[in-house]
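User: I'm curious whether this sequence folds into something compact or stays loose and floppy. Could you predict its structure so I can see for myself?
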Amino acid sequence: MNKKLLAFAALALVTAGANAKVKLPHILGDNMIIQQDSEANLWGWDKPGTLVEVSTSWSQQKYSAKTGKDGKWAVKVQTPKASYTPLSITFDDGEKTTLNNILAGEVWVCAGQSNMEMPVKGFGNCPVKGYNKAVLEANRYKGVHYVKIPSVMSSKPLDDANCEWKEINPETVGDASATGYFFAQVVNKALDVPVGLVMANKGGSRVESWLDRDYLKKNTKEDLDSLKMTKNPKFKWDFLYPLLWGNGTFHPILNYSVKGILFYQGCSNVGDPAGQYTQRLADLVAQWRRDFKQGELPFYFVQIAPYHNGDVNGDAGPRLREQQFNAAKIIPNSGIVCTEDLVYPYEVEQIHPCQKQPVGERLALQALSKTYGMKGLFCESMTFKEMKIVGDTVKVHFDNTYGAYNRFEGIKGFEVAGEDKVFHPATAKHFWQEGNDGWNECIVVTSPKVKKPVALRYCFRNFQLGNMANAGGLPLFPFRTDNW
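Assistant: Here's the prediction. I'll summarize afterward.
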């Protein structure tokens, strides 16, 4: 470009700035759901030194901000309680811009990789169970809206994304995150409030894809040069890149006021060293909470489902599930849902299981119980508590049974091993006898091939389906008592 063209381009920019009207990020738009009963963030850009006035349809209060040298402005607006009454917001810098059909409700982020991204209509050769029913019933869920943030890579954090809010109806429901939408269905009906879903995710992404540059430089050996990433044999596909997806796909939503975060990710971290994923996930949650600046946002996440991972009898998958389970113990204000039972036997090589409605419903149970304080719900899956070995028998107690097991006999998924560390399929059944030693009622596990058991496992293979659950039908988390 010659000097004349450069001068002309510069003049064009100055002229455009002089005539600029208020510019809003795309996430602030018609049909959006604003977080109810909160101080919601509103922000944008304008000519430096411009006074931007903000008014709302629900209040006489006026808000204003003056743009800085960078042209940015921001205000916090007190929002009303949830309702289905359409609202509007007007921005005025001398020329008015009005957003319409806004609802106040509950806003949740849908983050993670492809099993969160997976839409109600499914992917190619990856259907979602219940699609037609979701379309037929879409009009029953008034006030459920969503915005899909495009999956974009960037070496620097982006402040905007090309997106728009959509109302759920038969024509739009197919493009919504299935897990997120089925979560929204339950919350919408249980609380009778509008629900907004902010879908910021990327199929195949690793936990490192969402961590920021400072963290990755300090705590990992990840190469953060985007050009070198393209030549690094470690990254066979671009969805494995660190940093870039967080910068391009998640950073644009960090100013938006939300209620909490839903997360479904982990498949691309299978094989991580013990404890690494646990810590990095906990650190990612801390990073997001810091950047949203809205306190200790609730964080509910999904344990990855059984998948062959190249060897149905291997244990790389359950070792990652174990790290996820441990993460739930150290992340404050969090909860994890188990999906051990949400894979059909014929889905051994299907990394996108079709049963997404129960996943969303279980996330909703966590939120309704822990965030919204709804009483009487069974929201936790059963977990291993303790075992006692008596001769050739392993006696087992569990937490979160809610007073019942889903079955007494025909239990599948348990294995026991002796000192040789070789695990064998085991028979498990309900045991009860009179007594008061604390073990008069339990599950007893035995195997004819193990006379002196020392360790117990449940569904601790890449693809091993169990069938044990609690009174709420929530499955037993895979576990092991050994550290081999």
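Summary: The first helix runs from residue 3 to 18. DSSP finds ten helices and 21 strands in the chain.
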